[in-house]
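Notes on consecutive records. When two proteins share a document, each keeps its own sequence and its own token line. Never mix them. Below: protein one.
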Amino acid sequence: MRDAGESGARAVALAAEAQAALLSLPGVAGWRVVTAVPLRNVLVSESAGRWSALVDVRVRIMAED
């Protein structure tokens, strides 16, 4: 996600919310979430007042019988 602001605080907050949502994914009909593991959460300043946040989560799912 990208954000324009004085500091990266808003981008950090949005990244934290995105990661929390990914880690609490519910199962989908016929599938179940086996693991959800956070891999990376990075904040990068692209230029003055421009921020990018990257959230990587590995989600493993299995088909239910």
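Protein two starts on the next line and is unrelated to protein one.
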Amino acid sequence: MKNFAILLTVLVSVVLCSSCGSARGTINSLQNLNDELKYNSERFTAEDWRDAKMRLDKIQKDVKKYDFTDEQLKEIGALTASCYVYMGKNTLQSTFKDIRDAVIQAQGAADEIKAIIEEVKRNRRDK
């Protein structure tokens, strides 16, 4: 009988916590994503960024499913904004790197074209 009472208590606790845990779980997921971006994003691959974006999209869909207090909504807003800042920082860094690489490639191409033109001029003078 004692085991039945313990089992019943556990089941009731699980049922009660699952109803409030979903909303809190959504905030926890957002906090976890934010922490992951904060502490690990410097080492993210393109695939990691896609996963992070998909996770954020899913969390935002989940936010619409539940009712939150004003304080929770503020927390969600702050965490979401923070995630977007980290994602935006990555986008800027990636864009700047792409621009830098393109400029260096253009410089290399220009140097090569200049060398070829000078060689053609020398060949004409030598004839």
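For the record: The chain has three helices and no strands.
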